[in-house]
Amino acid sequence: KKSNVNIGFSFSKEKNRIRIPVPKQIFGKIEIESELGDITLGAVQTDSLSVFTETGSVTVRETQTKKMDIKPELGSVKITRSTGDIIIDNEMGNVEVAADSLDHNFNINNEMGSIHISTKKEPSDLFISASSEMGSIRIFDKKTGAFRAGDQTKEMELKTEMGNITVEHSN
């Protein structure tokens, strides 16, 4: 049985920190909204993860999900060792994704900030499309805006108006 949990908080002082331990189970949906403050999520299993923040960085690590939808207005995004389709719509801040493999769909749109994707495994079934109005693009050490491997059933679309885009192998 999948669970949904709703928890609301409101603070008027600065530098408040909330830590919410959750039981080890698979959640149907996790939604996190914040006006101000950094959000860190780790070691969670959920079908759907949705994170919105007006001002603050978002960090997601070791999270298994079918779909991850992250929308910060002002702040960086860092995703490490997590699985599932990723949608990021960021107005200002860098985006960094470190994955073991690129076997999910990615749609990352960044108005102002760089996008950096690193993977340990060579992609075998992926199409990458990257565009930057003001910045450089490097995909696996080549100055190109496109990459194709295998049947291309998985897609990665990377866009930034102002910033560099890098997709590379990591150690």
Question: How would you describe this structure to a colleague?
Answer:
There is one protein chain. Helix content is 0%, strand content 60%. It is mainly β and 171 residues long.
Total of DSSP H or I helical runs spanning 4+ residues: 0
Distance between the termini: 38 Å
List the secondary-structure elements in sequence, H or E.
EEEEEEEEEEEEEEE
Question: Nearest-angstrom radius of gyration?
Answer: 16 Å
Major sheet: 8 strands, mixed
Please list the strands of the largest sheet in the order they lie side by side: 1-3-5-7-9-14-11-13
Please give the share of residues in helix: under 10%
Q: What is the typical, i.e. mean, pLDDT?
A: 89
Proportion of residues in β-strands: over 45%
Strand tally, please? 15
| Mass-distribution shape | globular
**SS content category:** mainly beta
Low-confidence stretches: none
Question: What is this structure, in a nutshell?
Answer:
The chain is an all-beta fold. Helix content is 0%, strand content 60%.
Write the layout of secondary structure elements.
Elements: E1 26-36, E2 39-42, E3 45-55, E4 58-61, E5 64-74, E6 77-80, E7 83-92, E8 95-99, E9 106-112, E10 115-119, E11 126-134, E12 137-139, E13 146-149, E14 154-162, E15 165-169
